[in-house]
Write a structure and sequence with these properties.
Layout lengths: L2 H4 L8 E7 L5 H11 L5 H13 L15 H6 L6 E6 L4 E6 L7 H8 L4 E7 L6 H12 L4 E7 L8 H18 L4 E5 L23 H6 L13 E8 L7 H4 L3 E5 L4 E3 L3 E5 L3 E10 L2 E3 L1 E3 L3 E6 L10 E4 L5 E12 L10 E6 L2 E14 L6 E2 L9 E14 L10 E5 L6 E7 L1
Parallel strand pairs: 1-3, 1-4, 4-5, 5-6
Antiparallel strand pairs: 2-3, 7-8, 7-15, 8-14, 9-13, 10-11, 10-15, 11-12, 11-14, 16-20, 16-22, 17-18, 17-21, 18-19, 18-20, 21-22
Length: 426
């Protein structure tokens, strides 16, 4: 039994999750069914997709139209871009990303997975574990999504056969063991008919686990499963230039977002990369004082000492320092249409800090379908590779496996200012 299934019934706040899997496994229909059965669809929206379904000659409402918003998607019946939907059940809030299944949209899948805390990987019960199933599972693993739910869909097309479910479950577990994926839950369902989505239905009585919504309701949210080190990248230094109030004239606040951990008034902190020390004098948010700040809060920190701090510096708790380095090794996903050129210089942006960088080496390119490591001199769009960078300015980094915020970066083309790559620091 996985961690998701063992959790007690408590409200864990916002959950960001992702649906992915092979083409035509029913990702968009699943989200549509989830929104429909949780009463999260406005009446005019439902009426619009009902008319579209009727024009197509369908007897029932095509719920996949709720997420396949682009005209090209509706014409081809596939998901191309990442579609986000927001809904609430009264128990918790959700942000769900519907990722494309085609290999040529790997970069879209990476974008969707970067902030998710749970992935629903759909498998067509008739087809079992496919190459794209393995590919998306690996990407979910690479992007550090801690919880996987394998939803074996279209059980209605195999007469809700338990043996089929158990066979696919065994096949997936064998593959997951090769990657080291540990927390995996399995659920049989029919997105088209609504079995085991929100209501249990009457045709899968041999399955005794929770419904899909039940799993989502009790899934851990980000930052709640283990103690995290305090990381506060400074976004802006607030110093009023003109004020008749002398106290306000001396005000020096460091504004930013707590990426992980928490901090309290009186705690000793270390400023990186300068390694200066001070203590937190006050924590403010919207003009009011707080005794503590926690992960994902945007706050202003005031320190007891006059310390030279600027945008891009990192404030950490003393004893919880991070690596300050001019060289990083990372798994890189190339997003740009123009291939990566090792002879060029790029910009790397990590948290609030930006620096010029040069490609030191490309260790290997990963064949996303076979997971083979291949030699490479350049990278094309959607390629994933291990690469090392030399940096003009030091970055304060953690391994991506330890901290998804300070362990991630994007690569920017200096000439176009386009984001052309995304990396996970090893």
């Amino acid at each position: 039994m996985s961690a998701i299934e063992r959790l007690p019934e408590i409200d864990n706040g916002l959950l960001r999750f992702l649906t992915c899997g092979s083409v035509d496994d029913g990702k968009s229909t699943l989200i549509g069914r989830l929104l429909y059965d949780t009463k999260a669809i406005l009446a005019d929206t439902l009426h619009a997709i009902a008319r579209t379904s009727e024009r197509r000659g369908l007897e029932a409402v095509d719920l996949s139209l709720l997420t396949d918003g682009l005209q090209a998607e509706r014409e081809q019946g596939i998901t191309i871009d990442v579609t986000y939907r927001y809904f609430t059940t009264g128990r918790r809030k959700y942000i769900v990303a519907d990722a494309p299944g085609h290999e040529q949209y790997t970069r879209n899948m990476v974008t969707a997975a970067s902030t998710a805390n749970l992935a629903i990987i759909l498998i067509d019960a008739r087809k079992g574990v496919l190459t794209q199933t393995r590919r998306h599972s690996y990407l979910a693993y690479l992007l550090g999504i801690p919880h996987i739910v394998v939803a074996i869909n279209k059980m209605d097309l195999v007469d809700y056969d338990q043996a089929t479910f158990e066979r696919i479950r065994a096949d997936y577990l064998e593959f997951a063991a090769t990657l080291g994926i540990g927390d995996v839950s399995f659920i049989p369902l029919s997105a088209l008919n609504g079995d085991m989505i929100v209501d249990r239905g009457e045709r899968i009585d041999w399955y005794q686990g929770p419904t899909l919504l039940g799993m989502l309701e009790h899934a851990p949210a980000a930052h709640c499963e283990r103690d995290e080190r305090f990381r506060f990248p400074v976004q802006f230094v607030c110093r009023p230039q003109r004020s008749a109030d002398l106290q306000l004239h001396d005000y020096r606040g460091f504004m930013g977002r707590v990426e992980s951990g928490e901090i309290g008034v009186g705690d000793e902190v270390l400023i990186l990369p300068s390694e200066k020390r001070s203590r937190v004098k006050a924590i403010e948010i919207h003009g009011r004082s707080l005794p503590r700040a926690i992960a994902e809060q945007s706050v202003t920190l005031l320190l007891e000492d006059e310390v030279d701090i600027s945008r891009g510096d990192m404030i950490v708790r003393t004893g919880e320092s991070t690596l300050v380095t001019r060289r990083i090794e990372a798994m890189l996903c190339w997003l740009g249409e123009t291939p990566l050129d090792p002879q060029r210089k790029y910009l790397i942006r990590q948290t609030t800090r930006e620096t010029r960088a040069a490609i030191e080496a490309i260790g290997y390119r990963l064949d996303i379908n076979t997971l083979q490591r291949l030699p490479a001199e350049r990278l094309g769009m959607n390629d994933i590779a291990r690469a090392s960078f030399k940096l003009a300015q030091p970055l304060c980094v953690d391994p991506y496996a330890d901290n998804r915020s300070t362990g991630a970066f994007i690569v920017i083309d200096e000439t176009t200012n386009n984001t052309v790559g995304a990396g996970m620091i090893l």
